[in-house]
Amino acid sequence: MKRHNSxxxxxxxxxxxxxxxxxxxxxxxxxxxxxxxxxxxxxxAKVLSVGDDEKKQVKQRIxxxxxxxxxxxxxxxx
Length: 78
Fold this sequence. Notes:
By secondary structure, the chain is mainly α.
């Protein structure tokens, strides 16, 4: 009986540790997703960031992106 109780207590401790680790994994996944989103945002910002002399090119890029989005929306509406 003593061995059984000892193993039972150990099982409870291990289940608690497992739950803590699963929570840690979930938190890290969430943080990773946020960092990936920030990275993607930075990539877009880098593409769009230019000097004053390149404003026309930036405007053309933005217009191209908007047209692509409009095409995607039109395809979804079909």
